[in-house]
Design goal:
three-stranded mixed β-sheet; seven-stranded parallel β-sheet; 10 helices; UDP-galactose 4-epimerase, domain 1; 14 strands; Rossmann fold
Length: 324
């Protein structure tokens, strides 16, 4: 299929473009380059534009002849969403609504949404499955949940065929070192640990050491970026087969604490990686671990890089010699 990938120059979008091309699809990466990198678009066509401008996205769909959309273009930092919710509702809700309206107008039916485990809020059960109540606790999670509701309504009203993929913690880099994670400012744990290993920051902050976990630090579920991208291609094939309108979690189903991540990085890099214990951040749950049974059952998805050491090793390879 011909797939328009919004946010196609970003971390997850660029990996999705590459896996789509390697799977025989054709791509149009659509990105405003506010946070993405033109150099990360591995192949296919590129269109610079912004989903918050309706004509930009409508023209891209109409001119490209796209048959499906993967939507990654969004703001994604929890802390920033608390400080600047206007930006998040503008980009994540208005931008997404523009995209869906443009799809209806141009007759594009297949849609895969980059959602988040943040829609669940503080978990009442571990592991978290798709039936867990959606009670987001920050503006970022609320924008993702709001857009899921809009998407569901578009499915009922206009025949949109959709899948919502709710990620846990995307991490790592392409194993050949050509694509990786590069944000400014960086807020994700593994790249911050890599920066500390390389001496680009003096230490890594450990936010809270008194959680109800074996070592007192938060536990999170990390999923390798290539495994995440592969799930999107499988979701597209699922829609092509006439199935769809499903929400699916994507994670490894295993959790690792902040201290475990740092210790794994010390082994992988051979560097000391100083850490500094600091107070908790508001709203950080003790544990976030997924059940990905539904992804395995519906999509036939299995992670190829399930081990934390594999994820950290690919990140280390990238951060030693970043391409952009």
């Amino acid at each position: 299929m011909k797939v328009l990938v919004t946010g196609g120059a970003g971390y997850i979008g660029s990996h999705a473009v590459r896996v789509l091309l390697e799977s025989g699809h054709s791509t149009i990466a659509f990105d405003n380059l506010s946070e993405g990198h033109r150099e990360s678009v591995w192949g296919g066509a590129f269109v610079q534009g912004d989903v918050t401008r309706f004509e930009d996205i409508r023209n891209a769909l109409e001119n490209s002849g796209a048959e499906a959309v993967m939507h990654f273009a969004a703001s994604c930092c929890v802390g920033e969403s608390v400080e600047n919710p206007s930006k998040y509702y503008h980009n994540n809700v208005l931008g997404g609504l523009n995209l869906l309206r443009a799809m209806v107008e141009t007759g594009v039916q297949f849609f895969i949404f980059s959602s988040s485990a943040a829609v669940y809020g503080v978990p009442s059960l571990i592991p978290i499955d798709e039936d867990h109540p959606r009670l987001p606790i920050n503006p970022y999670g609320r924008t993702k949940n709001t857009f899921e509701l809009i998407m569901e309504d578009f499915g009922r009203a206009y025949g949109l065929r959709w899948m919502s993929l709710r990620y846990f913690n995307a991490a790592g880099a392409h194993p050949d070192g050509s694509l990786g994670e590069s944000h400014c400012p960086e807020t994700h744990l593994i790249p911050l640990v890599m920066e500390a290993a390389l001496g680009r920051r003096p230490s890594i902050s450990v936010y809270g050491t008194d959680y109800d976990t074996p070592d007192g630090t938060c536990i999170r579920d990390y999923i390798h970026i290539v495994d995440l991208a592969r799930a999107h291609v499988l979701a597209l094939e699922y829609l092509q087969a006439g199935e769809g309108n499903e929400a699916v979690n994507l994670g490894n189903g295993a959790g690792y604490s902040v201290r475990e991540v740092i210790q794994t990085a010390r082994r992988v890099t051979g560097r000391p990686i100083p850490s500094a214990d600091t107070p908790r951040r508001p709203g950080d749950p003790d544990r976030l671990v997924s059940s990905s049974d539904k992804a395995r059952r519906l999509l036939g998805w299995e992670p190829a890089y399930p081990e934390l050491e594999e994820i950290v090793s690919t990140a280390w390879q990238w951060h030693q010699n970043p391409r952009y």
